[in-house]
Amino acid sequence: MANFKVDQDKCLRCGMCTGTAMDIFEFDDEGNIKVNNEQINDENIDEVNEAMNNCPVGAISEE
Ligand code: SF4
User: Fold this and answer.
1) Residue 35 parent element (H or E)
2) Are 10 and 59 in contact (CB under 8 A)?
3) Pocket residue to mutate for ligand 1, from 10, 33, 50, 54, most atoms within 8 A of Cβ
4) How does DSSP assign 46-61, residue by residue?
5) Ligand 1 site: residues with CB under 6 angstroms?
6) Which of 17, 58, 60, 61 could in theory staple to 25 by disulfide, Cβ–Cβ 3.0 to 4.6 A?
């Protein structure tokens, strides 16, 4: 399954991605978005892509 990453320099910490795919995009203890790539599967990949496409600053990319 695909691996996604967040460019922490671009990320606004807006939380939109966590709202779209909350199991995959999470705030860590430092307020950065972490990506739980190991939990991406056929059921949630559409939500992950939606979160990537809707990120207002294009901070999410596929590795
Ligand atoms: S949607 Fe984009 S800018 Fe907003 S928290 Fe997620 S990665 Fe950061």
Assistant:
1) strand 33-35
2) yes
3) 33
4) HHHHHHHHH-TT--EE
5) 6, 11-17, 25, 33, 55-57, 59-60
6) 17
pLDDT of residue 1: 75
| Residues of the domain holding 10 | 4-62
CATH number of the domain to which 27 belongs = 3.30.70.20
How many whole angstroms separate alpha carbon 16 and alpha carbon 20? 6
**Contact yes or no for 3/37 (Cβ under 8 A):** yes
Domains: count for the chain: 1
Span from the CA of 42 to the centroid of ligand 1 (angstroms)? 22
